[in-house]
Amino acid sequence: MISPDDPPSEESPTEPKGNPIAWLIVRHWLLGGLLGIACAGALLVADPMGLRELLVRSDALVPGLAMLFVGFGTTFGGVVAATAVMFEKKDDDDKDGPPSGGLRGRLSSAQPALVPVRSARASVRSRY
To answer: Which residue range(s) make up the domain with 55?
Structure first.
């Protein structure tokens, strides 16, 4: 007998294999990382304000290049992956009409509260 707790015995032909959101994030993070590495390389080729010469003449050429490329790669990768997730079409985006969900409760309008405050200048003598 089949119960709701039993996992399906075979894969569904309509479901993609694996987690599609995870694949979306990893794929876009890698593409963004490659874009970041390309931008870091373009930055070294363009040599603004002598950045390439500064790296070549320093004692820390390899750590400097590693920090530059890893920093650009991770930053661009994270931005591209986050943008891909935020622009992913949701299931309820194709419905016409008002958005669904929520309680539709009325919000009371906020009224400012007047609170008596003692001035700091009244208790401190002027030094000048």
So the answer is: 18-87
